[in-house]
Amino acid sequence: MSGGGIRGDVRPVRLAHLGLGAFFRAHQAWYTAHAPDAEAWGIAAFTGRRPDLAVALNAQDCRYTLIERHADGDRAEIVSSIAAAYAGTDLEAWRTTIASPEVGAITLTVTEAAYPAVPERDDALLADVRRWPEGAPSTVTGRILAGLHARRAADAGPLALVSCDNLPDNGAVLRHAVRWAAGEVDSGLAGWIERHVSFVSTVVDRITPASTDEDRAAAKELTCWADASPVVTEPFSEWILSGDFPAGRPGWDGAGARFVDDVEPFVRRKLWLLNGAHSLLAYAAATRGHETVADAVHDEVCVGWMGEWWDAAQRHLGLDAADVLEYRNALRYRFANPRIRHRLAQIGMDGSQKLPVRVLPVLRADLAAGHSPVGAARPIAAWIRHLRGETFEVRDPAAATFTAAASGPPRDAVRAVVSLLDEDLAEQRDLVRLIEGLVRDLG
Ligand code: CS2
């Protein structure tokens, strides 16, 4: 293996992570560092998108400062649960890590876009499958397959795959993609995966804005150490998991994680109320000139929109009203944290991947139940304004398709964008007219 951090007190690598970014460092790496058996669980963390971060972390023994940003001040700690960091291109390190019998689980934060909804129609995954076993896989599924192939060859035993991305039933989505791809390339491997790999579904939550030069200065002030890549996060944090760990896991529950039989009620609550409100604010508040979530929730107009969205989502959550109210109040408090500068442009990335899971289920449920779907239609209307170039830069894997669809006269734009999301919805004239009106009225 090459590229890993080497230090005297290094923790044994028993976890692998794919998607080494700020969120992982504020969340899973933090839970691992706070587990009662933390000393026994080091993480080998891989990044496809941020090779620079792997270099920066290795230069400081993979330790980093985590700043918990409370409304009234900062608290800092040094997190040491990462044992080694690698660029995702280091396939040899990846294979060696996953082939180690010491490694019991792989956690993933690879963004919604990395999970193919229909694997058999995903061009990048099809290319990985066609190339197999030659060359380096370009998709997350392909990379996982390469790791599992090495693990099987080494007879290293069972393993848990733990998806930590904001998707409903993320473990099942990952399982479907991995099993499909395995079946295409090697039936022996597919059978081995079936018998040895468990897919854990999770709900993850911790608001983590991208860090800035001021955050680096704040970290140094707090710890007297010039950390090149500290992470700033909110005090709140939640991790709910469901599934088996056939090769063990850290005592994450000792650090506050919850293990449940079914994550489903928690998934919708978080995806709809938190992430849905985030996406609404990202686009709608930007039409009013706001830059951050905290700015947006100090604007009564945006707060009204958020309330309408929450009312719509709540109608279909099927949860106790008092609990939902408490959750909504807690969210309002978290969003208003004046010291967390969570930029709307950061949240507004990848809307084509996020809106279908955060907003469309509520819109469909409202229509099916005969409600006026204003609250659930507004995020789509605001996104169309964004796609029409009226807010921040569009950053999305499907940017070209969606910005082209959004570029015509308003009614055509609404119909074209909605039909890319769901052809049946685009056929509903009243809905198209409603969204068109909302597009006009935003701002
Ligand atoms: C946000 C999430 O960027 C986004 O899409 O909605 O990253 C959100 O901050 C986290 O899910 C909070 O747990």
Automatic annotation (TrEMBL):
EC annotation from Swiss-Prot or TrEMBL: 1.1.1.17
Catalytic activity: D-mannitol 1-phosphate + NAD(+) = beta-D-fructose 6-phosphate + NADH + H(+)
Gene3D superfamilies: N-(1-d-carboxylethyl)-l-norvaline Dehydrogenase, domain 2 (1.10.1040.10), NAD(P)-binding Rossmann-like Domain (3.40.50.720)
Xref: SUPFAM superfamilies: 6-phosphogluconate dehydrogenase C-terminal domain-like, NAD(P)-binding Rossmann-fold domains
MF GO annotations: mannitol-1-phosphate 5-dehydrogenase activity
Top EC category: oxidoreductase
Alphabetized UniProt keyword annotations: NAD, Oxidoreductase
Highest taxon above the source species: Bacteria
Residue stretches making up the Mannitol dehydrogenase N-terminal domain: 15-254
InterPro entries given in the database record: 6-PGluconate_DH-like_C_sf (IPR008927), 6PGD_dom2 (IPR013328), Mannitol_DH (IPR000669), Mannitol_DH/Oxidoreductase (IPR050988), Mannitol_DH_C (IPR013118), Mannitol_DH_CS (IPR023027), Mannitol_DH_N (IPR013131), NAD(P)-bd_dom_sf (IPR036291)
An annotated GO BP: mannitol metabolic process
Record domain Mannitol dehydrogenase C-terminal: where: 262-435
Keyword Oxidoreductase: yes
Family: Belongs to the mannitol dehydrogenase family.
Protein's UniProt name: Mannitol-1-phosphate 5-dehydrogenase
